[in-house]
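TA notes, week 10

Several of you asked for a full example with nothing omitted. So below is the full record: structure tokens for the whole chain, then the designed sequence directly under it. When grading your own attempts, check the secondary structure regions first.
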């Protein structure tokens, strides 16, 4: 983590005061946009808006203050409206900036400085303790699962498969610790005497100690759920003397042609074509496709594409979509990208601030080959093929 200058933090917070009107996009407006994008990244990583509270991470509280001010100022909401694809500024109740529960800039900055101690601002030892305490309590902080009816058949099936011997359980205490890569979407565990289903695994991120983590949505067989960090869940499992991992049986193809009654929709593979007038894009438009996987609606994913360097700063059209059921979206996306890695587009464009960006997930491949790759993934034979760019087709791997 780079050093944090308190004066810079104070200056950034002051940017959200009532501004002087200026023509065009001012440096202050660009900083407001950049600050809002930090909040958006926080929401994507943690699955929630930043929260106030004395026990919270100080940087989350800083984002919470910023979020309140952005929502409270009409000028900021107008500036950010086209970028707010998560609906962070569209709440019906605008939070008052002067709320007694909201710390002011000086209080936040004082807490930042106090948290640094003798080791400097980048060594937030006091903040870390409160984070650890909150992580330990997250297991107990469960809420009612409002859509439990769609998960109930999954628990019933797992219980049947445990009784019939199709599934087994492994004691967590026999492992050093359940490794990060072993907790995946769709897995089942027994913790505190209840079956826990990992329904969602959020995007991975790095902690302040450079450890990988992500936020989970865990559903329990008693109709409750929790949204906790993966490392918190790992610790809860390891500390539970009766904690167990439920093994997965052979589940067949990666995803079926038609969903079964108890299948859960996992997302959508989407294939997009760019409308950019960039010379490289225009010259290869018929075979240049962005291939990705999303858990939300494709329309939501591509909203404001012309402002996003991921989409080449241009509008896109949807060429094809494929629905997914009971699969790990991240794994699936990695499989597709590995197949087409030799033909990944190598291009550099400028974002709206003039910064150079190299977009990923764009590949020079015909649509009919994408269709074939999806079929090979379905029948489980994709590992036997590679993509030959010269002939523009899948070919069998050579037998060594």
């Amino acid at each position: 983590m780079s050093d944090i200058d308190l004066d810079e933090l104070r200056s950034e917070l002051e940017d959200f005061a009532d501004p002087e009107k200026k023509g065009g996009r001012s440096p202050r407006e660009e900083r407001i946009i950049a600050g809002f994008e930090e909040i958006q990244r926080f929401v994507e990583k943690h699955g929630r808006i930043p929260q106030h509270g004395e026990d919270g991470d100080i940087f989350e509280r800083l984002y919470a203050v910023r979020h309140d001010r952005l929502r409270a100022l009409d000028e900021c909401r107008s500036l950010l409206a086209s970028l707010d694809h998560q609906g962070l500024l569209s709440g019906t109740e605008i939070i008052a900036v002067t709320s007694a529960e909201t710390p002011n800039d000086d209080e936040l900055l004082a807490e930042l400085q106090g948290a640094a101690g003798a080791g400097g601002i980048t060594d937030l030892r006091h903040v870390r303790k409160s984070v650890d305490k909150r992580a330990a309590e997250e297991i107990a902080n469960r809420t009612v699962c409002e859509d439990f009816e769609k998960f109930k058949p999954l628990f019933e099936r797992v219980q049947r498969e445990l009784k019939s011997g199709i599934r087994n359980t492994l004691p967590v205490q026999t492992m050093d610790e359940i490794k990060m890569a072993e907790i995946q979407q769709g897995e089942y565990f027994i913790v505190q005497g209840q079956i826990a289903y990992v329904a969602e695994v959020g995007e991975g991120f790095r902690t302040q100690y450079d450890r990988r983590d992500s936020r989970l949505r865990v559903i329990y067989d008693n109709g409750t759920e929790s949204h906790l960090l993966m490392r918190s869940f790992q610790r809860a499992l390891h500390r539970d003397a009766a904690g167990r991992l439920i093994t997965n049986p052979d589940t067949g193809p990666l995803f079926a042609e038609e969903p079964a009654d108890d299948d859960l929709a996992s997302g959508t593979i989407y294939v997009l074509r760019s409308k950019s007038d960039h010379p490289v894009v225009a010259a290869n438009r018929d075979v240049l496709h962005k291939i990705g996987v999303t858990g939300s609606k494709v329309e939501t994913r591509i909203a404001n594409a012309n402002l996003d360097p991921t989409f080449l700063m241009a509008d896109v059209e949807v060429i094809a979509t494929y629905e997914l059921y009971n699969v790990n979206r991240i794994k699936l996306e990695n499989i597709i990208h590995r197949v087409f890695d030799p033909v990944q587009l190598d291009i550099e464009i400028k974002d709206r601030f003039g910064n150079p960006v190299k977009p990923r997930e764009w590949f020079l491949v015909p649509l009919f080959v994408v269709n074939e790759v999806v079929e090979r993934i379905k029948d489980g034979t994709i590992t036997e093929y590679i993509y030959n760019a010269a002939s523009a087709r899948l070919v069998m791997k050579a037998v060594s």
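Residues 199 and 217 are 6 Å apart (CA to CA). Use that as a sanity check on your answer.
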